[in-house]
Write a structure and sequence with these properties.
- The protein is an alpha/beta fold and about 260 residues long.
- The chain folds into 2 domains: about 1-110, Tetrapyrrole methylase, N-terminal domain (Cobalt-precorrin-4 Transmethylase, domain 1, 3-Layer(aba) Sandwich); about 115-260, Methyltransferase, Cobalt-precorrin-4 Transmethylase, Domain 2 (2-Layer Sandwich), CATH 3.30.950.
- It has helices at about 15-25, 45-50, 60-65, 65-75, 90-100, 115-120, 140, 150-160, 185-195, 220, 240-250, and strands at about 1-5, 30, 55, 80, 105-110, 135, 165-170, 170-175, 180, 200-205, 215-220, 230-235, 240, 260.
- A 5-stranded parallel β-sheet has the order 3-2-4-1-5, with helices on both faces.
- The relative contact order is 0.14.
Length: about 260
């Protein structure tokens, strides 16, 4: 059995009760934190809280060389852990399909995602979000200006009146950064401001923690602010319902006159 478990957004307590029970009952536990991390807990914290040993795998150890994980799951109950929801914005569907090819039973136990948390914290209605995108560090994509994947997503969503979640790049163990590097919202806003200087954005920082932050402003304004510890993401509002506009003004300090409201 291979059980995919989402750990939630922040620390060792963010996991669901169902996920906690499955993790503690597993014979073996693996984890990856290259797609996202729990900023409020170390691996040691997770191991101590749940009474398990966890082997952390890098990207190659999951995507290119998963045989150890799959081999263990053929004879044992194996837990595979990720931050957030284990099947959102990750490549873990491939690992699940490989398990099925080998006749291994799989199970998914969901966790809270950054996208649903962003909707909850900003007051923007979840069904009014379009396609999400990821804003990479400039050195990671090598192109001049914003990648087309970012601009086309924002432009298409705005044309349809939809909100956009912009995930900010994470580099785990990257040689350029000499360790882990997290794009902060001010850096992300500055990159977006090159193309969209007057566009309203909403910063969501430390979703799932005891002190989440939500602040709105133009990308130019946000580029000059500080938002504290990561993880951060940006939301670009589309056309707002009156209630959504009220929420952005009250919860994020948005300028109502700058919003597109119907």
């Amino acid at each position: 059995m291979l059980t995919f478990i989402g750990l939630g957004l922040y620390d060792e307590r963010s996991i669901t009760v169902e996920g906690r029970e499955a993790l503690r009952a597993a014979d073996r536990a693996y984890a990856e934190f290259y797609t996202s991390e729990l900023l409020g807990a170390t691996v040691a914290d997770l191991e101590s809280y749940h009474g398990v040993e966890i082997e952390v795998r890098d990207r190659a150890g999951v995507e290119q060389h998963p045989d150890e994980i799959l081999g263990a799951a053929e004879t044992e109950d194996v837990a595979f852990l990720t931050a957030g929801d284990t099947m959102i914005s990750t490549t873990h569907a491939d690992l699940r399909l490989r398990a099925h090819e080998r006749g291994i039973e799989t199970r998914v136990i969901h966790g809270i995602t950054a996208q649903t948390a962003a909707s909850s914290l900003t007051g923007l209605q979840n069904y009014r979000f379009g396609k999400a995108t990821t804003l990479p560090f400039p050195y990671a994509h090598g192109a001049d200006g914003l990648p087309a994947s970012v601009t086309e997503t924002i432009d298409d969503n705005r044309a349809d009146g939809l909100h956009t979640v912009v995930y900010l790049d994470i580099k785990v163990g990257h040689e350029r950064a000499e360790g882990d590097e997290y794009m902060t919202a001010d850096v992300g806003a500055a990159l977006l401001a090159e193309e969209y200087p007057d566009l309203v954005g909403v910063v969501v920082a430390r979703a799932g923690s005891p002190d989440p932050l939500v602040e709105a402003g133009t990308t130019t304004d946000l580029a000059d602010r500080e938002f504290g510890d990561p993880l951060h993401l940006l939301v670009i509002p589309g056309t707002c319902h009156l209630l959504e506009a009220d929420a952005l003004v009250e919860l994020a300090g948005a300028d109502r006159d700058a919003l597109d409201v119907v």
